[in-house]
Amino acid sequence: MSSESKEPNSQHVISQPSLKHKKLPFQIHGSTIECHGDDGIEVTGDVAPPIHVSTTFISDAPESYGQEYSRIDTMTRRRVEAVIGAIEGGQAVTYSSGQSAATALIHCIKPRRIYLNAGYQGVQFAFKLYTERQNIEDEKVQLLTLEQCKEIYDSEKKELRIDSPSWRPADIKEKRALDLIWLECPNNPHITLVDIEWFAELAAQTGACLAIDSTLSSPLGLRPFEHGAHVVMHSSTKYLAGHSDLLGGVLIVHSSLSDVLTCKLLQERTTDGPVMDMSRETDSQHVISQPLLKHKKLPFPIHGSTIECHGDDGIEVTGDVAPPIHVSTTFISDAPESYGQEYSRIDTMTRRRVEAVIGAIEGGQAVTYSSGQSAATALIHCIKPRRIYLYAGYQGVQLAFKLYTERQNIEDEKVQLLTLEQCKEMYDSEKKELRIDSPSWRPADIKEKRALDLIWLECPNNPHITLVDIEWFAELAAQTGACLAIDSTLSSPLGLSPFEHGAHVVMHSSTKYLAGHSDLLGGVLIVHSSLSDVLTCKLLQERTTDGAVMGNFETWLLLRSMRTFSLRVRRQCQTALIIVQWLEKQRAAGYKVMKIHHPSLESHSSYSLAVRYLRLLPATFSFELQSESQAKSFARSLILCAHATSLGGVETLVDWIHSYNTSISPTLLRVSIGVEEPEDIIQDFEQALKQAQ
Q1: For position 608, what pLDDT does the model report?
Q2: By Cβ atoms counted within 10 A, which residue in 233, 449, 487, 601 is the most buried?
């Protein structure tokens, strides 16, 4: 398999950590590696490894981060990847499920011609969904049969047969017979094996990646790298975990490819984000649908924080006041011909509960994901937009769209990101109609009247806390048939109700205000009731196929956090107003503060839009000092508050964003206000401002 190194899309170069193990005078094996394969990764006196739950990490120096954000890297993830990698003899990359591991490899390689030998239905669906997403005119993805593989390759002469009818003209030109060979060995459920070494020869001749799903054999039973494999995949839910209480997946890359392929997998895992109703017929026997929630019949409506505490009442019959933590990955069925709950990647009671609560708060149907990044990626891939308007300050979402356009851009079918000027050119807001004569239209789009497919708005925007006129974009969406999606993370459901202004989908990084304790990764899409029968069902189906589900414990933590959501966020927003007013006094006095970005101030560019749209002003804001050195010195001098990325947690965080996003001014600091007393935050800011040189 050959590949070329690519520059990462972000300022962060994501690489497999350099593991500094104990220097032993002898070689260790088997179960000793299992016990000691992660020795030396972190300096701690604990015999048993500590449980790291923080989503963000303090940085002593504003201009450089060690660990930054748990979607990128954690010590616990480093440990388990070191152990599994050492056992298999390669470099390991972990995922939120076996399904998301398989999906990650497919999207990383972007194969056009595939040989697939998989008994596991989930992997079959992953490949089926990939081919549906990719098939554009002459660039159709082709699944080859074993007979076609044998026609292409002469195993006696060990060379390709160019005269084989299995070749397509474009593939002959590029000598691109195969890109990916995926073997499940042993195969599920018949436990059949294939001749791996024959396929290794075929891979060597065609330049294909040979990937072995070795879940059923485990590393003890089969050593795929010894027989020519490039990548080994395990659903770690199964034998690696072995207690039926977690979902996970892992890809192990052979050392010959690890510098390029492992780095690319790590980069795309960070970008895609899968780190550890009315039913619709599918090709599966299983019909995946949003559960029908049977709540208590109350003689009166409930609101706000009462919904947060009782929005999931009646989903499961239990005498527990606090919801139980369901950790089982599989469920007993009394009748062989029918399952109720079947497998936790599809559905769990805890997931039903938290989706019911969040859905009720926003007024739609909620679908949760393993991170905000994976929620954004899920909507993009579900809609498959060709023409997009993107207004996003958050760099992760920008990278998700960039990666999507790179994956999709094929000849005349290029995905196009439109500017605001192009949107205004194609839509006459006075007449409320499209301008067909606009130069922003492409010929194919005029024919289909396909001006826009997806409008993505981050509102308020990060880090300048600017807003957009959502209702103008709702009109544009109505005229063009586009989906209007609002990333409302910074405002939270307390601050903004996007559905009241015409949105079709609302997205939250639930890592932030919904969870609010900096101890879990999560994301959620909430679909408006007018689309929920079709779109929610499709999102649920594709989440099951792609595998980007929240872990059981993270789901329960999110549900627990929702009980205090209003209490936390109201306090944070009130405190933010006090801190902003204090900073404004410093600015007015000419004391180091040059500008404050918060829509409570009449000087802010979005003040009038905030009055129109926001019910509660956000607890996140940014401000600028006189120089880069002052900004860095301020962040470095904080005592009570921490210099760390992310936002929405109970602790106040200050982030010098320029260290990882150079498009942001080096004088700017973003502040996420916590639940501390306002006077204590002011004391810390005051002493840091004095030291800012």
Answers
A1: 98
A2: 487
Q: What is the pLDDT of residues 632-643, one digit of tens each?
A: 999 999 999 999
| pLDDT of residue 278 exceeding 60 | no
Distance CA 367, CA 485 (A): 14
Model confidence pLDDT, tens digit, residues 42-55: 776 666 677 777 77
| Buried-exposed string 477-499: b where 16+ CB fall within 10 A, e elsewhere | bebbebbbbbbbbbbbbbbbbbb
Fold match between domain 73-269 and domain 309-438+447-563: yes
Residue-wise pLDDT tens digits, 75-128: 888 889 999 999 999 999 999 899 999 999 999 999 989 999 977 888 898 898
Q: Quote the strand ranges of 383-425, DSSP E.
A: 387-391, 416-418
What residue has token string 């627990």?
560
Residue 409 half-sphere exposure toward CB, CA atoms < 13 A: 10
> Does CATH place domain 309-438+447-563 in 3.40.50.300?
no
Provide the CATH number for the domain formed by 73-269 in this structure: 3.40.640.10
pTM of the full predicted structure?
Answer: 0.81
| Torsion, CA 637, CA 642, CA 644, CA 648, rounded to 10 | -140
Supply 555's token pair.
């789901």
State how far the alpha carbon of 416 is from the alpha carbons of 264, 268, 400, 458, 584, in Å: 24, 21, 14, 19, 41
Question: In CATH, what number does 566-692 get?
Answer: 3.90.1150.10
* Phi, psi for residue 421 in degrees, rounded to 5: -60, -40
- Calpha distance 53→76 (Å, rounded): 9
Q: Distances in Å between the alpha carbon of 586 and those of 148, 289, 650?
A: 74, 55, 25
**Alpha-carbon separation of residue 609 from 429, 486, 577 (angstroms):** 18, 15, 17
